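Hi all, a correction to my earlier message: I attached the wrong file for HD domain-containing protein. Here's the right sequence:
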Amino acid sequence: MSILTPRLRRAITVAAVAHRDHVRKGSGIPYITHLFSVMHLLRSVTDDEDVLIAGLLHDTLEDVPEHYSAGHLEADFGARVLRLVRDLTKDDSLPRWRDRSEAYLNHLEHHADRDAVLISLADKTHNLMSIFDDHEVIGERLWERFNSTREENQWWYAQIHRVAVARVGRNQLTDELGELVRRLQLL
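and the right structure:
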């Protein structure tokens, strides 16, 4: 497979346009950097084009459905990509952070496609990398950005790591997230 296929180039464009007004929490960094980073992390463990595309579009239905709907996603990239993205979309009908998090973990552990777990692993690995980058700059004020406490984040990332190891086994990404989780426990 070509490194940058027409479908993958199309997904890059869709992600950039859909998230054009979206920035990373508290930093002002364009959100697309996160999506590219997730795709890059995924590329280290798979060449599956659908997985790479779903990695680029994993937050689209959750964060910017007004810019790119499930119907558009399926028409442009197929039912499998849509299914992977849906597997990664949190249920925002649940009012509390903990309830949404537990429902997401339960789905990831027991119902989600294995490749969706791999995408979640890349997503959470990059999120945790970003937390450490931001913590270096602003210190403990970092936690004010979140709807969850430092302790809840420590629990969350540890649970994601546990589920990822159980579902996809050990690989570069599970090892990387495991090391980041250990560092987070020390913050």
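Sorry for the mix-up. The two ends are 42 Å apart (CA to CA).
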